[in-house]
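task queued by scheduler; priority normal; single chain, no ligands, no partner chains; default sampling; output format set to structure tokens
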Amino acid sequence: MEFDKFAGEYSCILDKNVAVSGEGSAYFARYKAQYLHRTLPALSFGKILDFGCGVGMLCGFLKDYFPKLQLHGFDVSEASLEKVSSDLKRAGYFTSNLSELSRDYDLIIVANVMHHIIPHQRREAIQELADRLANGGRIAIFEHNPLNPLTRWVVERCPFDEDAQLLPRSETTQYLRDANLHIQRRDYIVFMPHFLRGLRPLEPWLAWLPMGAQYVLMAEKRLSNVLS
């Protein structure tokens, strides 16, 4: 609920906080949507949940890249959901009530949310989301990379990251395994600042390098996992 007080100025605050990269907050939201579109080219029909959708910035880009999918958004901050654009609300469903979410999502996105969840509740949160995946559905978790010193510097100065406790990739990986999900990808992402933007096409080839500003883990729910 702490995010309620930032809802009205969320984008402006985030733009200011990430200015050191030479980009605005929209760049990072679009980056995630592009990553998903590139790594999940066959995902054209079905249902997406943006868990921790905030004011809907990422959802806007998801709608552009996956226009035929049903789009759902969840956030505990009702004030943030009120800032979601009317176009997105007409195209999807947004709620702060967990019980209103479906249990047949083809993709659940958790973008920079886990570091706000109290550590002893993280495993339970991932299990809850795993239970809401369709068979063959995937979960994609984007998180800040604590191995990157610039990332830590930015997080330490972000007003709505005062409660943040960054997760190493190994911790997030274990939560997915504990939920009986099959891990498909482990990528580091976001390497080049604006002044090196000409080198950005090379970033997919650097996914192994643990100096990306963020990382992403993608895992799948399989029938064998459901029956075990």
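post-processing summary
- The two ends are 37 Å apart (CA to CA).
- Strands lie at 47-51, 70-74, 92-95, 105-111, 133-144, 182-189, 214-220.
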